[in-house]
Amino acid sequence: MRDQDQEAPGEEQPEPPSKTKIKQAMLALQDLGGELVKLPQAKLEKLPLPDELRRAVEDYRRFTKNGAIRRQMQYIGRLMRGIDPEPIARQLSAWKGDSDEEKALLHRIERWRDRLIEHDDALTDFLRDYPDADATQFRQLIRNARQEAAQSKPPKSSRALFRLIRESLEPAPGPDEN
User: Fold this and answer.
1) Domain limits of the chain?
2) Are 26 and 75 in contact (CB under 8 A)?
3) Residue with the larger pLDDT of the pair 85 and 4
4) Taking 50 as the threshold, does the pLDDT of residue 175 lie above it?
5) Which of 27, 14, 19, 18 is nearest to 81 (CA)?
6) Cβ-Cβ contacts under 8 Å for 148 (sequence gap 6 or more)
7) Domain 100-169, CATH among 1.10.60.30, 1.10.260.40, 3.40.50.1100, 2.60.40.10
8) What values do phi and psi take at 9, rounded to 5?
9) What pTM value is reported for the model?
10) In this structure, what is the dihedral angle of CA atoms 35, 36, 38, 44, given to the nearest 10 degrees?
11) Which of 78, 81, 92, 97 is nearest to 48 (CA)?
12) Which fold has domain 19-96?
């Protein structure tokens, strides 16, 4: 009988990660936690975080002393080791506009906004593609955006129109999502 600890000829045991790699991974998780603490509360609530991690992030915001802040950040990093950080990192990347999908969505929203402001029949096309959109609110924002552009005012309505288009284009969360 062979000992299970002995390796058979030709079989290689994978080497455990070095201390440096482990430390880099822990610091990366701590950096991800650092991005979480900077998020506005509304965005933080949209992330699928365990309750303990969510409380740790909220506690971090209450601390004012550097030592407490540093220890809390280390605690957040330690909590991050127990979860899969990939969905969180992906969502943060999307919010920052780093992902190609997010960039494509932003360009699509901008094209719709420009079409809606420039062409009267564009709203009909938009409502055909997105029937759940609020036509009255769109008409009001389009009218206001055109007036603001004509009077060289800040594009407040144009920005609001952008947000409304984004809400219409993004899929509504399912029953299992936040």
Assistant:
1) 19-96, 100-169
2) no
3) 85
4) no
5) 27
6) 154, 155, 156, 157, 158
7) 1.10.60.30
8) -60, 135
9) 0.50
10) 140
11) 92
12) Diphtheria Toxin Repressor; domain 2 (1.10.60)
